[in-house]
Design brief:
5-stranded parallel β-sheet; alpha/beta; homooctamer
Chain lengths: 164, 164, 164, 164, 164, 164, 164, 164
Amino acid sequence: VSKVAILMGSSSDLPSLQPAIDTLAELQIPVEVRVLSAHRTPARAIEFAAGARAAGYRALICAAGGAAHLAGVVAAHTLLPVIGVPLGRSLGGLDSLYATVQMPAGVPVATVAIDGAANAALLAAEILALSDDALLARLEKRREETTAKVIATDEDVRKKASRL
Amino acid sequence: VSKVAILMGSSSDLPSLQPAIDTLAELQIPVEVRVLSAHRTPARAIEFAAGARAAGYRALICAAGGAAHLAGVVAAHTLLPVIGVPLGRSLGGLDSLYATVQMPAGVPVATVAIDGAANAALLAAEILALSDDALLARLEKRREETTAKVIATDEDVRKKASRL
Amino acid sequence: VSKVAILMGSSSDLPSLQPAIDTLAELQIPVEVRVLSAHRTPARAIEFAAGARAAGYRALICAAGGAAHLAGVVAAHTLLPVIGVPLGRSLGGLDSLYATVQMPAGVPVATVAIDGAANAALLAAEILALSDDALLARLEKRREETTAKVIATDEDVRKKASRL
Amino acid sequence: VSKVAILMGSSSDLPSLQPAIDTLAELQIPVEVRVLSAHRTPARAIEFAAGARAAGYRALICAAGGAAHLAGVVAAHTLLPVIGVPLGRSLGGLDSLYATVQMPAGVPVATVAIDGAANAALLAAEILALSDDALLARLEKRREETTAKVIATDEDVRKKASRL
Amino acid sequence: VSKVAILMGSSSDLPSLQPAIDTLAELQIPVEVRVLSAHRTPARAIEFAAGARAAGYRALICAAGGAAHLAGVVAAHTLLPVIGVPLGRSLGGLDSLYATVQMPAGVPVATVAIDGAANAALLAAEILALSDDALLARLEKRREETTAKVIATDEDVRKKASRL
Amino acid sequence: VSKVAILMGSSSDLPSLQPAIDTLAELQIPVEVRVLSAHRTPARAIEFAAGARAAGYRALICAAGGAAHLAGVVAAHTLLPVIGVPLGRSLGGLDSLYATVQMPAGVPVATVAIDGAANAALLAAEILALSDDALLARLEKRREETTAKVIATDEDVRKKASRL
Amino acid sequence: VSKVAILMGSSSDLPSLQPAIDTLAELQIPVEVRVLSAHRTPARAIEFAAGARAAGYRALICAAGGAAHLAGVVAAHTLLPVIGVPLGRSLGGLDSLYATVQMPAGVPVATVAIDGAANAALLAAEILALSDDALLARLEKRREETTAKVIATDEDVRKKASRL
Amino acid sequence: VSKVAILMGSSSDLPSLQPAIDTLAELQIPVEVRVLSAHRTPARAIEFAAGARAAGYRALICAAGGAAHLAGVVAAHTLLPVIGVPLGRSLGGLDSLYATVQMPAGVPVATVAIDGAANAALLAAEILALSDDALLARLEKRREETTAKVIATDEDVRKKASRL
């Protein structure tokens, strides 16, 4: 079965990543969660990245704040799709956004919104769903449910707040 | 064979997307290039997005500048991986970067660097290579060649510019 | 009677829009409040936009945060005046401001301040007042009252804080 | 017949406003173009604003750069819809964008994109078209032509650049 | 005796201006505090500006937030030195800073830091002190006291925190 | 006679300051132009600042780019009004703007627009005119001429560009 | 023994500098902590900088917020390495970052992250360790301990949060 | 003899680094210039960093643009002082500035100005001069010459541009 890894630079980032963990669980995708720092345990981060494909991972989610180098360092050592989540630790998250998204030609990082862990999981799921129809069905069901929920709140708000 | 689509909001964006077209060609990935505007031909953009999976596309590259809504509109109508390329038309590209990357939970866009069309193509290739070993081999060869080129310039610069 | 619609991407945005709802009520303008997401219920949003003129609306207020696409998507499907309210959900609201105001030539969005819902309502009222003299009179009265209130606080502050 | 005024702070701004002048001409809307500075001829600017409704204007387009106060000053003296065009003279236009869009509650300015003069004209046209069906027809025809043009370039680009 | 006026756009700005009021009081400079809005009571603001020199004012301190037009509007109607205080109400105060400092050639505003009311008062005092030796002496004494206070904390911190 | 000094950090800044030199000349205000660097000739800068009042100066204009410290260093050594001109050498001038305007309480710098040398001269003139009626008359004449020029271009543009 | 000085503009900055004081203590590096303001006690700051090498200091850490001039003023009076710590007092710390890092050619300041006092201490330690092998050994031990700690949290998080 | 290394991510960065090469040459400091990419030749970059101290280097200058990870990756593998030069390739250099300076606690990078290569060399020289009196003498002579040059241009500008 295809797996997804969630890497973060510090265990203090775990709450920011919880939406990704929960979303992958909901979609029944196996996930490995790791604390691997581009600056404090670079060798382990590189070793994980280099071995990830052979270990069965199909997408790597990397989250970091500030001068967020984790996604870039991982992307330099694998040809798996790397998904970057900039964390809003300073400057509203602009520093981590720029450090994640502005990668040089040759080494892409698929960047999602600042603190956008849930979408990182969904993006990983969309990638895995290209060759997993059951997962695609779960994704479709999830989107339909989301749509249904918005429609329900629409009906509710419309009645309560409109004044025609 | 899996295909990739490159969508742009205006034909004047074509030169910015050429690196993506060239990179996909180099990697022997079939590509369809379209001018589909989220604001001026929204129905066609939505129709394309909704039918893209059935038509054999496996990743959609969407490029736009300013209030760049194309990637978001496409992502709202498909569960294929959508890759956003913010184009630097105004404010150094910050407006298109924010409008592309800051998507709400539920509808992810995999954003690459401002004017980062080449990396959008490589990201699409990495996704397709998950189930295409020949493509993976081409990607690996490409990365090795890039590495070799940097090493060659390193030797060259080292000799000419160092003074020990 | 001319109506105004207030559209928002999520029911959690309702408190931010309350000043618009209250202002329109105060000015006796019929208002329909809807939760229509550009990304989660795009078909409903488009259907509403396309039918709004025929349904009697004369101005559409669209509020969203982050990669705020709602106003742009609505504006792509109507020639009614579309008023965009960028909501301050991240980056101080800069992402939603840019995503709302930096529209391409051909599809205008009348953007007000970040979290500026009250002014969105007043702008809609000014537009309706072009063909509704009673409404114009209410707007004039409102502005006079605002002026009077500022003058009253001026007298008050002047006495208490000055030291000549 | 309803008229639109285009006000700018300096005659050097005229080229930036030409797209607005041309668009209004194309839509057969009478236009008065004025150089009225919030800082150098404030009395004339205020006098114009205060008398604009009586003079037959139905929308006022105000363009300025830097600490762009013109739209705000005009909006303080009229209840006509005021459309602000921030001009990109410094800081990429951020100073004029903020000075135009961040108006306090009570005095709205409908802001369009930095250097977005064409959309200012279209917004004015949409407002006038609320009570002018012939103008609405011209606007509809214009949008259809824009759509047709994008479709034509789509066909063209698709053939030349795709490689399937 | 020369007087200074402190103008603000709303009575809610009073706490932000208190440091200016206190500093002027401490320096024995007569001060008039007014609530005069560029947008809601423009006529009163202009009348005050135009008559300020004749009324005995020698410097005008203008504070506003958002699209901060007050200082610019006042400066357009007087040749007295106008000191602008950008208030941090949104975007960290960047909108009011740009709207205050980026004035066009011909109409200067002496801008101080975001929420820098105390320095606005000191700048006004420096200007008045050019022709008031007693005030200059009070300013010199104040600066000496400030220096002495910093020296005292230096001695204190040095002893407690150093470790040699 | 009261004098004004124009200080800049490098002779390469001279063209940016020429509008200040010309404006002071036009207003018949004696001016001394100096190259005094906060970082490369700090002792001379400090000596000049400390002796400026005794030497007959009544306002000091300080221009610098990047980490613009000149105005702050000068202001720390005098109680004369110090006028800061942020020069646009990098980051669109934002670095020099922030480094000039965000002074701590106690040491004000009267900041004008990025590259706003002409307004720095006018602000100095307004300060000197508080005790020089002839200069005030020259300033009033200058403003009237500016107004007249704008009115003339208004008449011109109105005729040529309007279409009623 | 080589010493390091920590200079700050105000005693209110002391808590922000505590991580630097603690880190230097942990590494057994003698430290002198001073409150020396570039604006309020410039003579003392300059005197300290000019005499620092002779007094045995080998690196000077300078911390300030807003228009942060302290590091630049100190660097102008010494050829010792000067380390700047921008403090986040306003604008998220962007003003102090720019005012610290954007120094002109000739007078370098080694800038660390906004509120990055701990890294300022480590950078000073790295400099001193170039000629102090015992200190180098302590730095190595510290880094190994940091690595070990991250590895421990990695094992912990991996077990608790993964779901394979 | 102590050596300095200049590392850059691409040979196209060489012109931006030339001021550093020239400054080190002028100060008679041996320099090795290398093209080592954090993303395209990470193994070589890491190998160089890990062996740099043993190879006789005493400071490492790392220059990169965009998501500038080179300095951080190098700093993660050495306890030598690492000096980061953010290159202005996009967004005015803000992306590379943030990606270089906002390092997490534990791994410092001494950041200089955007495109500030000359100051990177001077900072390296200041560090080496702590244990090299001849180099210190050359640095002192260089600063004196810089001061003398500014004084000469001061005399020149003063005569030509002043008008007293």
